[in-house]
Amino acid sequence: MIEMWDEIMARQNPAIKAALLANNGLEAFELMHRELDKVWRESARVVKSGGFICVNIGDATRTIDKKFPTLP
Predict the structure, then answer these.
(1) Is 67 helix (H, G, I), strand (E, B) or coil?
(2) pTM for the model
(3) Tally of domains in the chain
(4) DSSP designation for 22
(5) Which position among 25, 34, 41, 56 has the lowest Cβ density within 10 Å, counted as fewest Cβ atoms?
(6) What's the mean pLDDT when you consider all of the chain?
(7) CA separation for the pair 47, 28 (Å, rounded)
(8) What is the DSSP secondary-structure string of 41-65?
């Protein structure tokens, strides 16, 4: 499924696709998280006072330049 998210994120910011194609995993990771920061800000804006937001984060892995990077 991780490739699906690559495509979705690249539509949000073409620099993400460029970073992935260049095997620059750290740059792609940072750019993807900048896009996700927009989601978190909007989520915080619309949640009712006293409400909560559930986010399900899986443990996906990927290879970048034939290596499995560990990303924070």
Answers:
(1) strand
(2) 0.73
(3) 1
(4) T
(5) 56
(6) 86
(7) 29
(8) HHHHHHSPTT-------------BT
